[in-house]
Amino acid sequence: MAEEDEETAQQAQIDDAPVVKLINGILTEAVRPGASDIHIEPFEHELRVRYRIDGALLEVMKPPIKLKAALTSRVKILSQLNIASAVCRRTGGSSSRWRTGSSTPRLDAAGAVRREDRAAHPGQGEPDARPDQVRVRAEGGGGPDEGHPQPYGMVLVTGPTGSGKTTTLYSCLHRINTIETNIMTAEDPSSYNLMGINQVLVRSEIGLTFAAALKAFLRQDPNIIMIGEIRDLETGGIAIKAALTGHLVLSTLHTNDAPSTITRLIDMGLEAFNVASAVNLVVAQRLVRRICKHCAEPTTYPEVVLKSLSMDLGAIEHFRFMKGKGCDSCGGLGYKGRAGLYEVMALSPAVRKAILRGDSAAELRDIAVAEGMLTLRMDGLKKIERGITTLDEVVKETAA
Question: Domain of 157: which CATH number?
């Protein structure tokens, strides 16, 4: 009993240490503005802490430089250098979990990054990913109001790191997760934990790769398979095979837009006829910051600026451009929250024929646009028109 009391007293001393209090404060304060990442960055003469809020980094404090080794060491101790480890902080009745994203040796010391563990918020979709969009994408339609449900085939979500691809896929799974459906996922790492879905964490060091997991899945009677990412020919080949043999396959790729996803698969070494037959839908997406509703106000752009951005002045002459001037609600940033930009390309018969002909990504885009596809820039302009985001954000995230 005395030993237990001594251990409790020692733990209380540890929790009372200044460095522990500071780390706890950094984690707790990150919850209020909805930070997705915390950067603890040591330099030669200063120590910097930044939060990533709505995709943008914001400096929040500069602790004393003498604490740089202790702070990064504390983060390593909390996570035990394990990317799957998490720390839970509770603030005002709500909790947030954080996992270690990276700890890297630098010139002056080790820098540490902690990322919000979205498994703490199951079922939450990315901002502006409407349920009707999510449902139709998962079922193989071409957009919120078109297409018919497809029980098999491949749905791909593409975009750069941090664009919300995994969130979109899990929104799909959340909608189609029923007692009659066997859903299996292979991830690296797992971002969400959903009841009723069989989730496998890929571990390449023991041979459990995406390809190996896929092979195992096909022997376990799945209806729906989600692969974290198609990274190589072997994984792509097995995914195509699964899609062609009666399974719905969801996955992601790192490409700039929907049409180039098709050419990327073929460049990997997959046969064009298999790609054309297996893929039902490709969604390219980006996240842009939302204008703060509390301080939004009209703004204008010089005509020369609009022309330099290849804007169709006739198409935007009725636009009422908005911006946020900055207020207490948004921390003076003028933005609060994020919205999605989507480019949804359904593989229509015309698109499939173009793939078989060996058409380029630009030619595939022209066909899809002629059939009604909105490019990322077009979708961005619609959200500018609705006062959701700014021209600066859309130009930053999309190509003309």
Answer: 3.40.50.300
**Which of 89-103, 136-150, 378-392 is predicted least confidently?**
136-150
Joined tokens for residue 16: 């009372």
pLDDT tens for residues 8-65? 554 444 455 788 888 888 888 888 888 888 888 777 778 888 888 887 888 888 888 8
Residue 312: its pLDDT value, please?
Answer: 73
* DSSP-derived 3-state class of residue 305: helix
- Shared domain for 336 and 212, answered yes or no, is yes
Helix (H, G, I), strand (E, B), or coil: what is residue 134?
helix
What is the average per-residue pLDDT within 246-273? 94
Residue 34 lies in a domain: yes
Judge if 386 and 243 occupy the same domain: yes
Contact 284, 370 (CB under 8 A): no
Interatomic CA distance for residues 109 and 380, integer angstroms: 41
d(CA 22, CA 114): 15
Domain stops at, among 119, 151, 185: 119
Structure tokens at 318: 């009725």
pLDDT of residue 176: 87
- Provide the domain limits for residue 42: 18-119
H helices within 55-187, ranges in order? 68-79, 131-139, 165-176
301 and 330, same domain (yes or no): yes
- Which is nearest to 323 in space by CA: 302, 344, 369, 292? 292
C-alpha of 291 from chain center:
20
Judge whether 124 lies within some domain: no
Q: Residue 385 carries which side chain, given as an amino acid letter? A: E
**Comparison of pLDDT for 78 and 371, the residue scoring more:** 371
Which burial class, exposed, middle or buried, applies to 157 when counting CB atoms under 10 A from its CB (0-12, 13-18, 19+)? buried
The model's pTM is: 0.70
Residue listed under structure tokens 């509770």:
90
Identify the CATH number of the domain in which residue 48 sits. 3.30.450.90
Backbone angles phi and psi of 114, in degrees to 5 = -115, 135
Q: Is the peptide bond before 189 cis (omega within 30 degrees of 0)?
A: yes
Same structural domain, 254 and 377:
yes
> What is the per-residue pLDDT across 94-109, written as a single tens digit (0 to 9) for each?
455 555 555 544 444 4
Paired tokens of 282: 């490709």
Structurally, the chain folds into a number of domains equal to 2
What pLDDT is stored for residue 113 in this prediction? 57
Average pLDDT over residues 73-90: 57
Do 333 and 223 belong together in one domain? yes
Boundary residue ending a domain (78, 95, 119): 119
